[in-house]
Amino acid sequence: MKILVCLSKTADTTARIAFDAAGVKFSEEGVQFILNPYDEWYALVRAIELRDAQGGQVDVVHVGSAASDMLIRKALAIGADAAFRIDDPEPDTRSVAEQIARFAASRGYDLIFTGKETIDYNSSEVGAMLAAALNLPFVSLCSKLDFSDGTLRCTTDIEGGTQMVELRPPAVLSAAKGLAEQRIPNMKGIIDAKKKPLEVLPAEAGSALVTVVRYELPQEKMGVKMIAPDDVQELVNVFKNDLKLI
How far does CA 143 lie from the centroid of its chain? Predict the structure, then answer.
């Protein structure tokens, strides 16, 4: 089984968010970056498990700059066989999907994994766009995956419960919590990762859908105001004057 896992770089959840003076670009100064957890913990690990059970190869691909190479090497240390980076430093969602689609189109992947979303923008768009570009079936929010007799059996999260989906590869799946368990690279994996290939590919022009006008930080949260349980009038005043809800 030949599998491709799409990787994203995201800011650590403890990072302090700031923007440049014009407010149009995220400031990376002093920010610690990580592999997007949905890509690393669930998509990548389940892909490796399938390869180990079925045989084959797991490739990873990332669209970004050389600053991401260390994170890509982490994916190799966890167990991916080969890595590719498409050299596009500031892609938007549509461009990422198009770049990966062009890369994957002629390589014969049986499965392509994405995380269900990134933990920074939470757009949950790349998987569906990629499947559409490749004209492949797409299963989103996959929390369990079995493969036997040439058939993929997926459990996906839906409003109020789950549903079962069966299909045959090739296909694109977005990985949700529960699909696998996080793996920590061991020393052998870290050493082996240095010997595995990381190929850099040139970017091609994409068709961006979004233009950033300005980023703004949300307003600071209000402090807690305690109101006696029987003071209904004070509660109404808060809704009316402080929160402007009535």
Answer: 14
> What does each C-alpha distance from 142 to 52, 125, 153, 190 come to in angstroms?
20, 15, 10, 29
Exposure string of 217-227, with b = 16+ CB inside 10 Å and e = fewer, is eeeeeeeeeee
**Full set of structural domains in the chain with CATH:** 2-218 (3.40.50.620)
pLDDT interval class at 245 (50, 70, 90) = confident
* pLDDT at residue 206, as a whole number: 67
Give the DSSP per-residue string, 169-222. SSEEEEE-TTSS------HHHHHHHTTS-EEEEE--------------PPPPPP
β-sheet bridge partners, residue 3: 58, 111
Q: Which residues of 52-76 are buried (b: 16+ CB within 10 A; e: fewer)?
A: eeeebebbbbbbbeeebeebbbbbb
3-29 pLDDT tens trace: 999 999 988 888 887 888 778 877 777
Query: Please, which residues bridge with residue 57 across strands?
Result: 2
Indicate the helix (H) or strand (E) that contains 242. none
Residue 136 in contact with residue 150, Cβ under 8 Å?
A: no
Which two tokens mark 34?
A: 């990580």
Neighbouring CB atoms inside 10 A of 51's CB total 19
Distance (Å, whole) CA 133 – CA 131? 5
Coil, helix or strand at residue 46: helix
pLDDT in tens, 40-73: 999 999 999 999 999 999 999 999 999 899 999 9
Instruction: Give 147-164 as a 3 state SS string.
Output: EECCEEEEEEEECCEEEE
